[in-house]
From TrEMBL:
<dbReference type="GO" id="GO:0005737">
    <property type="term" value="C:cytoplasm"/>
</dbReference>
<dbReference type="GO" id="GO:0032259">
    <property type="term" value="P:methylation"/>
</dbReference>
<comment type="function">
    <text>Protein-lysine methyltransferase that selectively catalyzes the trimethylation of EEF1A at 'Lys-318'.</text>
</comment>
<dbReference type="GO" id="GO:0016279">
    <property type="term" value="F:protein-lysine N-methyltransferase activity"/>
</dbReference>
<dbReference type="Pfam" id="PF13847">
    <property type="entry name" value="Methyltransf_31"/>
</dbReference>
<keyword id="KW-0963">Cytoplasm</keyword>
<keyword id="KW-0489">Methyltransferase</keyword>
<dbReference type="InterPro" id="IPR025714">
    <property type="entry name" value="Methyltranfer_dom"/>
</dbReference>
<comment type="similarity">
    <text>Belongs to the class I-like SAM-binding methyltransferase superfamily. EFM4 family.</text>
</comment>
<keyword id="KW-0808">Transferase</keyword>
<dbReference type="InterPro" id="IPR029063">
    <property type="entry name" value="SAM-dependent_MTases_sf"/>
</dbReference>
<dbReference type="InterPro" id="IPR026635">
    <property type="entry name" value="Efm4/METTL10"/>
</dbReference>
<keyword id="KW-0949">S-adenosyl-L-methionine</keyword>
<protein>
    <recommendedName>
        <fullName>EEF1A lysine methyltransferase 2</fullName>
        <ecNumber>2.1.1.-</ecNumber>
    </recommendedName>
</protein>
<feature type="domain" description="Methyltransferase">
    <location>
        <begin position="84"/>
        <end position="214"/>
    </location>
</feature>
<dbReference type="GO" id="GO:0005634">
    <property type="term" value="C:nucleus"/>
</dbReference>
<keyword id="KW-0539">Nucleus</keyword>
């Protein structure tokens, strides 16, 4: 398990993050990439599943351990009831689901469009001896009718990945917002952590049907006399 990286990627430091999710894009916008495709993620998690089976290593935690603590701390501060329904969108290895369940959340669901990711999550959850976490292979851009009514939706790096899709990412981002509106309850919270989008850009992307509830502090970097945040972590509320 990688620790400590809170710089936009899973354990690989700032440089790894930039390579991994196209973080730190320039003014030209996104360069479409394989990182936005199901094939890429399925291959990643197939490899990570093998590593987990051989060595017990759970693999990358996007934005590091601190990103999970930050979200759980926020839920604690706002007294989110432990029986609130929580959806992790694009759960990857499902490690955040494990953290939520260990904290005491009893209605936790993870979805991912990569079957290997869901298989890996299932193996990790089983090894942890947790039985009440729900897992589903779902494409969030085309969610099943069963996926609805969540109090909390979480996204760590999934909107970033979708933004890199080589096939009409603009449309896919719009579809993401529609899906989010469908699955989240009115007044429900959406917690997003991103390294590809600034706070202002995220406000714009989620301006329809969502309002900013809180910005969560993330580490600042400074370089060449300029400073800023490499990761944005925002909480939106569905209006
Ligand atoms: C950068 S990884 C982040 C994984 C995890 N959230 C974490 O924090 O470790 C992006 C994840 O989003 C998933 N993903 C991308 N597009 C998706 C979609 N349309 N529907 C469901 N999952 C998707 C990928 O398979 C991958 O697991």
């Amino acid at each position: 398990m990688n620790e400590g990286a809170d710089d936009g990627g899973g354990g690989g430091g700032a440089e790894g993050a930039a390579r991994s999710l196209g973080c730190g894009r320039g003014g030209d916008g996104f360069v479409p990439s394989a990182l936005g495709t199901r094939e890429h993620w399925d291959a990643v998690y197939k490899r990570e599943l093998q590593t987990f089976q051989e060595y017990g290593d759970t693999g990358e935690i996007w934005f590091g351990e601190e990103s999970m603590t930050r979200l759980i701390r926020w839920m604690q501060k706002h007294k989110i009831p432990l029986d609130a329904s929580v959806l992790d969108i694009g759960t990857g290895n499902g490690v955040f689901l494990v953290e939520l369940a260990k904290f005491g959340f009893s209605d936790v669901t993870g979805i991912d469009y990569s079957p290997s990711a869901i298989q890996l999550s299932g193996s990790i959850i089983e090894k942890e001896g947790l039985s009440n976490i729900k897992l589903k292979v779902e494409d969030f851009l085309n969610p099943s009718t069963k996926l609805f009514g969540f109090h909390i939706c979480i996204d760590k790096g999934t909107f970033d990945a979708i933004s890199l899709n080589p096939d009409n990412a603009v449309e896919k981002r719009k579809q993401y917002v529609k899906s989010l509106s469908r699955v989240l309850k009115v007044k429900g919270f959406f917690l997003i952590t991103s390294c590809n989008w600034t706070k202002e850009e995220l406000l714009d992307e989620f301006s329809e049907g969502f309002e900013l509830f809180e910005e969560l502090p993330t580490p600042k970097f400074s370089f060449g006399g300029r400073s800023g945040n490499s990761v944005a972590a925002l909480v939106f509320q569905k209006t």
